[in-house]
Amino acid sequence: MTGKHKSSLLLVLGVIVAVNVAAQMYFGRVDLSEGKIFTLADYSRQVVRELEEKVLVKVYFSEDVGPQYNQNRTYIKDILEDYRAYSNGNFNFEMVNPRDKEAFEQEARQAGIQPVQAQAVENDQISVRLVYMGMSFLSGDKKETLPFLGDVTGLEYTMTSTIRRLTSAELMKVGVIQGHGEPSLAPPMQQNPMMPPAGPTIGTLAEMLRQTYQVEEVTLDAPIDPSIRTLLWVAPQEEVGETELYHLDQFLMAGGNLALALDRYSVDMATRQATPLALGLDEFLAHYGIRIEDKLVADRNCGIVTVRQQSNNPLAMLFGTQMRYPLFMELRSFDDEHPVSRKLESALVAWASPLDTAAFAEARTAGAIVRPLVKSGEYTEVQVGPAFDMEPVQQITPELLDSRFNDGAQVIGATVEGAFPSFFSGRELPEGVDGSTRIDAGAATQLAVVADGEFVTDQYSQQGDNLSLAQNMVDWLSQDEGLIGIRSKAITSRPLAELEAGTRKMIKWLNILGMPVVFVLFGVVRWMARRRRAGLVS
User: How far is CA 313 from the centre of its chain?
Assistant: First the structure.
């Protein structure tokens, strides 16, 4: 090797060493994924950057977890390295060595991580083994455990929430109103699978909120704890008394915020009957700019139900027929500028009603800021009671669209912000309440409403982005918008756009005829080129 070549080789080796040294001191990454799912959100960086206590994360990941989980190990290590890099030395992690199997398993169990079954393929045979996939967060004498990391979707949100919960002196409180037939907060894991719950539950939503907040059940028969800044009210079924309205009004006057998921009707799907709910809330909510109309909205963008009908086909009678149900609306029109609805793709609501835009106009005139969050599609049918068409449809034809689904987009969810006078200002107070501390001119408050109470219940909350919409409402009202951006990164619902019949037919024939035509044209061009070359040769 000549001296020139040796110098070039030494130069290349020097550059490689310098790059590796620089990579140890500084790091960078180009994330081309939608939503930057492999890059820490600004809020996550802020949380670890502001840590005042040391946080240690110990990861327990067995060696033989199977191919379906191998990528999870790499992703977890990468995201932990990012947290560490932004923490100013207050965040660290340890990948516990699984080679000493007995010691590893003992430590994992002591950390609160239980083994799970995983499949592995060896020598063309499938075997099932017990593996550990979890992590433990330690800070001082506090400990939090994530017992299973088989699905890393939304892991950044879970980790940031855990770090904040672990290092916060006191969590913000969120109250969930009870006492009027609302869905219970029973956790899903505590429900007996052999015995369905007596009524609807919102256990999944409550469980998610507890990752970030201190969730408490609240009744309105007494003044609301002033340490609670946000209330969530889901699907009350019974009338609300005047004293209860007074306590809610004073909560809002003091600057409290309210998230509402309300039904106008109670629906019995078995009998196809809708019964109006007399809640006594209409005048009260209208005072704050919210009025739910006495109507139901049906949409051609809708969900599917299984209907069992009399039929000559025994399989159809046994398993039922899949039919579209326009009263199960699939909402896709979100306000992309509002923190609550930004980046949401779809939500499924059941027997929803439209919000009265005239009430919005009155609130705006009074100085409030009103913003629609989500609307139905353009092809809707607004049904006016008391008789509703609640039957599924086999097929939504052009004729059906022309005759029924032509009422335009309807507002289903919205937010209202402003300083309102008390609903009871100038009114006689309910008997028995203490009016000595009454507030007549309120501080600025915020309300968020979706005119459907089912979308957050456990039966429907896993549909589309329902759960994200409900959590975003609570986060926004609680002035906790940083978590909304992290949660939005994990949204994966991508509903197909509804196309016109003519467009669908054109795409269909392009798929059928397009490739054959391309090959024929290619053959003709090749044939003409060969003839031209043959003519030149002769």
Answer: 40
Longest pairwise C-alpha distance within the chain: 112
Beta strands 55-61 and 91-95: pairing type?
A: parallel
3 state SS of 416:
strand
Residue 437 class from Cβ within 10 Å (0-12 exposed, 13-18 middle, 19+ buried)?
A: exposed
Q: What is the DSSP string of 83-130?
A: HHHTTTTSEEEEE---SSHHHHHHHHHHTT---EEEEEEETTEEEEEE
Rounded to the nearest angstrom, the gap between the alpha carbon of residue 254 and the centroid of all alpha carbons in its chain is 29
Distance CA 388, CA 384 (A): 7
Q: Residue 65 and residue 291: Cα distance in Å, rounded?
A: 54
77 three-class SS: helix
The answer to whether the predicted template modeling score (pTM) of the entire model surpasses 0.90 is: no
Please give the full DSSP string across 428-465, using - where no structure is assigned: PPPTT--GGG--SBPPPEEEEEES-SSTTSTTTTTSTT
- Dihedral class, residue 417 (left if φ above 0, else alpha if ψ from -120 to 50, else beta): beta
H or E element, residue 46: helix 42-49
Comparing CA positions, the residue from 183, 112, 105, 114 lying closest to residue 150 is 114
Percent of the chain residues topping a pLDDT of 70? 86
For residues 266 and 276, what is the distance between their CA atoms, to the nearest angstrom?
A: 6
Dump pLDDT digits (tens) for 349-400: 999 999 999 999 999 998 999 999 999 999 999 999 888 988 888 777 777 7
Whether the pLDDT of residue 237 is over 70: the answer is yes
Cβ distance 379 to 406 under 8 Å? Answer: yes
**Tokens 């998230």 found at:** 259
Pairing assessment for the beta strands 133-139 and 55-61 based on DSSP bridges? antiparallel
Q: Is 78 exposed, middle or buried (0-12, 13-18, 19+ CB in 10 A)?
A: exposed
CA dihedral sign, ordered 147, 162, 446, 358: negative
Residue 73 phi, psi (nearest 5): -60, -45
Tell me the pairing of strands 347-350 and 321-331: antiparallel
